[in-house]
């Protein structure tokens, strides 16, 4: 085979070009720290990189979600703690007031403090976190408790119009010792009848000129004989409120914390802040301001407050159980983040020690190629003519 000068020149130039290309690749890896800079260099690495990067992005979003969840639940827990403290104070005041040695002025002072505690509890029910009401289910833009609709009384124009069948902005109900009574149709059409879920009734007769209030319920004696009981009530024993006074939105606010795992971050507000919750406190205030109320009647309110306290404690316990689970999920997300970033790095990042070693080796090879090519391509026809 005859080897010509042009063949030597072309081969030398081709090898030098390949050497330059290799140097260019290694130089890019050293400058960027990545194995490839274009998908065409290694489609498999590029495709895996997109999947791994998506996974890392998802985990980072889950971490941000966890921050929002912790903020929401920490605020809820802190608020419920303050609610419990306030109810404990109400209970202490009720125990003091149930002593018949207290005078009317002293009980009136206790009523004022109970009123301030109730208003404080209303403000706690309207707690906002990051611009959102956290005790109103999914309706986070509107306050759940409206003070102007909590205790409208019999003389309220809105209530009277509603009773008379006029169109009003609100519907109304009655609460009595933690029980809600909703209006039902009266068969005779003369009285205004409110009925509870268990069938007890509160009947308003002679409304609105000379209103009498009567409670009707079914009682069972020791011999299991069923009797219909009736008792006349005073106005202070009932609390008339609009249905919109306390929100009943108990829908869950769910945030995704892991792939396909949604966690409710809010409590059930109806289990703590309900119309009967504030109705009981208003009823206690009215009883404390009534000089004719004796100790045994006030003692009954101790059980009422204990019942509301129990509901707060139960809801807080349920919230704490979810917080424990979220802490475990947070640890899992951190571990997934470390693993995902490590896999992404193994797929995309260049081994810098290896790249530097290859670059130095390739540089020596390139210099040797240049030197050998210079010696082979140096002789020409002019060299022989001399």
TrEMBL record:
UniProt GO MF annotations: structural molecule activity
Subcellular location(s) per record: Bacterial flagellum
Flagellin C-terminal domain: residues covered: 302-384
TM ranges: none
InterPro entries named in the record: Flagell_FlgL, Flagellin, Flagellin_C, Flagellin_N
One Gene Ontology cellular component: bacterial-type flagellum hook
GO terms (BP aspect): bacterial-type flagellum-dependent cell motility
Major site of localization recorded for this protein: other
Domain Flagellin N-terminal: 5-140
Domain of life (superkingdom): Bacteria
Cited Gene3D superfamilies: f41 fragment of flagellin, N-terminal domain
Family: Belongs to the bacterial flagellin family.
PANTHER family assigned: FLAGELLAR HOOK-ASSOCIATED PROTEIN 3 (PTHR42792:SF1), FLAGELLIN (PTHR42792)
Name this protein carries in UniProt: Flagellar hook-associated protein 3
């Amino acid at each position: 085979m005859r080897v010509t000068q042009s063949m030597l020149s072309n081969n030398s130039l081709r090898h030098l070009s390949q050497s330059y290309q290799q140097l260019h690749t290694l130089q890019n890896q050293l400058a960027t720290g990545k194995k490839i800079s274009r998908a065409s260099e290694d489609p498999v690495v590029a495709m895996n990189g997109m999947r791994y990067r998506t996974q890392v992005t998802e985990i980072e979003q889950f971490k941000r979600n966890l921050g929002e969840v912790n903020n929401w639940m920490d605020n809820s827990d802190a608020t419920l703690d303050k609610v419990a403290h306030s109810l404990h104070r109400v209970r202490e005041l009720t125990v003091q007031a149930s002593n018949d040695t207290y005078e009317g002025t002293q009980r009136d002072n206790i009523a004022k403090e109970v009123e301030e505690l109730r208003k404080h509890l209303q403000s706690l029910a309207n707690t906002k976190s990051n611009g959102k009401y956290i005790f109103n289910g999914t309706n986070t833009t509107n306050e759940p408790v409206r003070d102007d609709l909590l205790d409208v009384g019999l003389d309220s124009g809105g209530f009277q119009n509603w009773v008379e069948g006029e169109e009003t902005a609100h519907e109304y109900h009655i609460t009595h010792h933690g029980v809600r009574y909703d209006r039902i149709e009266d068969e005779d059409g003369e009285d205004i009848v409110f009925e509870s879920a268990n069938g007890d009734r509160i009947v308003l007769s002679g409304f609105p000129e000379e209103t009498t209030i009567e409670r009707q319920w079914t009682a069972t004696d020791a011999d299991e004989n069923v009797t219909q009981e009736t008792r006349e009530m005073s106005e202070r024993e009932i609390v008339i409120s609009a249905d919109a006074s306390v929100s009943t939105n108990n829908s869950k606010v769910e945030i995704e914390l892991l792939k396909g795992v949604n966690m409710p971050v809010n409590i059930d507000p109806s289990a703590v802040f309900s119309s009967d919750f504030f109705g009981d406190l208003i009823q206690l205030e009215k009883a404390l301001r009534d000089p004719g109320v004796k100790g045994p009647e006030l003692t009954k309110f101790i059980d009422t407050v204990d019942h509301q306290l129990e509901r707060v404690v139960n809801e807080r316990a349920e919230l704490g159980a979810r917080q424990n689970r979220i802490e475990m999920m947070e640890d899992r997300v951190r571990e997934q983040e470390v693993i995902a970033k490590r896999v992404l790095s193994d797929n995309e990042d260049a081994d810098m020690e290896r790249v530097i070693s290859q670059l130095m080796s390739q540089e020596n090879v390139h210099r040797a190629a240049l030197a050998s090519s210079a010696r082979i391509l140096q002789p020409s026809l002019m060299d022989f003519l001399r």
